[in-house]
Amino acid sequence: MTQTPVADDQRSATRAAATVRYPALALTERNVVFFRSGGAYWWLALVGLAEATAYLLGMGWGVGSLVGPVTLPDGTSVPYAAFVAPALLATAAMDTALAESVVSFFGKLRFARIYVPILNTPLRPMDVAVGELVWTLARVLLFAVSFVAVMLTLGLVRPSAVPLVLPACLLVGLAFGAVGMVVATALRSWQDFDLVGAVQFTLFMFSGTFVPVSTYPGWLQWVVELSPLYHGIELVRPLALGTASAATLGHAAVLVAVAGVGFVLAARRMHRTMYS
Amino acid sequence: MPHPPAVRATGLVKTYGTSTVVDGIDFEIHPGEFVGFLGPNGAGKSTTMRMIGSVTRRSGGDLAVLGLDPSTDGPAVRSRLGVCPQDDLLDIELSSLQNLTTYARYFGISRTESRSRALELLDYMSLSDRAQDRVASLSGGMRRRLTIARALVNRPDVVLLDEPTTGLDPQARHLVWERLYALRDSGTTVVLTTHFMDEAEQLCDRLLVVDKGTVVASGAPRELIDRYASSEVVEVRLTHGRPAEWAARLDGLGERTEVLPDRVLVYAQDGDAVAAALERLGLDVSSVLVRRSSLEDVFLRLTGRALVEA
């Protein structure tokens, strides 16, 4: 009656050991399958859009009406809403990247434990890391596109800046995605997320988000340099305002370095936790 | 071209820190064989399976799976294995069908082919009507069948099953066995671990009895019984006293006695003769049971304790 769907000798003899061309992308695809079948994710995207709008209106126009235009280090003066919007965009890229790479990843690693059977396939821990990172970037891009759409609607960014602003957001997402995975492998329980949240909020408040860092006292400026989000904001903001300089490239380089170190550490830690 | 062994281990060792979990075991598994690792929890069965599955590195010795070294050719080895882990670990965020299709994609199987294999396997495992359901809504037996289906999605040359029926109720267990029989008949090489005697005896062509990280005996189930146990066993219970106190009085009745907490086993070629002789001793016997020897007796003989401790 039922035929056993298993290789017979003929078939296994003619079939060489299958090589998977893009193993990491098979994992990304798993997330896409879940994304498309679960309604909750769409709500998340909608909530994100609403959040972006609320932030831009509240901070930009609300607070902006009180503080007036901001003078940039190069002397140009911009409305407060246009000054703060790119920083909120960079922060949103960070938040999205961390939500995937810390929260979701931790859940899949420690609770659903979906990577254990996946490692019985040709995929290696490195492929899992790359696959999750690609997925994180897709999420960041999705969020950034809707955020930028709101900015365009409100006239907070020129259309010509968009092709540079979006890749900049991806770079911020890459850096935080890689660091987030390192953090996720180090977390012990859900309680530790309070700590992650606190750090995230501190970065949000003190990375030159709301005021130019040049207004901070000297010692604090040094501390701010350690914040990857600061470099993210200093990358996205000049690109959005059309005031990019050589310094902007420097900030991009810092993010590339953070992403690189984070990825190597994440892959190494995953290799250790997954292959015992 | 002669078939090389599907798996060959020589002096295989696995240590974690100072504890040795697998202590220099040797075995060969031939293509098409259905081999069982039989042993108590902590004997090193699962660790051996993980080394074959190339997800745990060996600490010493040699290991070849399908002619490849799992520590250097991991992805190539794994592409030809089907693994059914002890605790299912299905993707709880996905449906039954999605569990199979996404898993097939990890092996580089095309989308259309993944889908057709997944549907075929769901049908084979009698799960077609649950294809769209989330894994969380499936019973334990269904989940285990889905896990076995997942292990077959790449049409593996060797299937590794780690305690395939642990935790299942008798009905679910028999349904899984039925499928494993079919798998055996299809000529697939299967390696399973178990601590169930009946499972080992009924399913496996050959058994490797493991204890404390070493192989203490190997052979076909019947062969092991013939070699390590007499053909019959008499189980004796007395009304009074602990077996340890009166066991000595049964010496000489059979070839050998084994003292258990609640009874004494007397091994003999002719169990009825022992029962008759026992009657002549005039002990206050509460029950006497004559039965054929089983694998449990083999294990008791080899390790001095029962396999499944209550």
TrEMBL record, chain A:
Compartments (UniProt record): Cell membrane; Membrane
Record carries keyword Transmembrane helix: yes
InterPro entries listed in its UniProt record: ABC2_TM (IPR013525), ABC2_TM_bact-type (IPR047817), ABC_2_transport (IPR000412), Nod_factor_ABC_transporter (IPR051784)
Gene Ontology molecular-function annotations: ABC-type transporter activity
Gene Ontology biological process terms in this record: response to antibiotic
Location, primary (coarse class): membrane
Membrane topology according to the record: Multi-pass membrane protein
Keywords: Antibiotic resistance, Cell membrane, Membrane, Transmembrane, Transmembrane helix, Transport
Tagged with keyword Transferase: no
Residues of the ABC transmembrane type-2 domain: 43-273
Coiled coil: none
Annotated transmembrane regions: 40-63, 83-107, 128-152, 164-187, 199-219, 239-266
UniProt cross-references to PANTHER family, sorted A to Z: NODULATION PROTEIN J
Family indicated by similarity: Belongs to the ABC-2 integral membrane protein family.
Name listed for the protein in its UniProt record: Transport permease protein
Record lineage: Bacteria, Bacillati, Actinomycetota, Actinomycetes, Micrococcales
TrEMBL record, chain B:
Pfam families, per the entry: ABC_tran
BP GO annotations: response to antibiotic
An annotated Gene Ontology molecular function: ATP binding
Cellular component terms per the entry's GO annotation: plasma membrane
Keyword Membrane found: yes
Subcellular location(s) of the protein: Cell membrane
All residue ranges annotated as the ABC transporter domain in the record: 7-237
Membrane topology (UniProt): Peripheral membrane protein
InterPro entries: AAA+_ATPase (IPR003593), ABC_transporter-like_ATP-bd (IPR003439), ABC_transporter-like_CS (IPR017871), ABC_transporter_ATP-binding (IPR050763), P-loop_NTPase (IPR027417)
Keywords: Antibiotic resistance, ATP-binding, Cell membrane, Membrane, Nucleotide-binding, Translocase, Transport
Family: Belongs to the ABC transporter superfamily.
PANTHER family per UniProt: ABC TRANSPORTER ATP-BINDING PROTEIN (PTHR42711), ABC TRANSPORTER ATP-BINDING PROTEIN NATA (PTHR42711:SF5)
This protein's name: ABC transporter
Organism for this UniProt entry: Cellulomonas chitinilytica
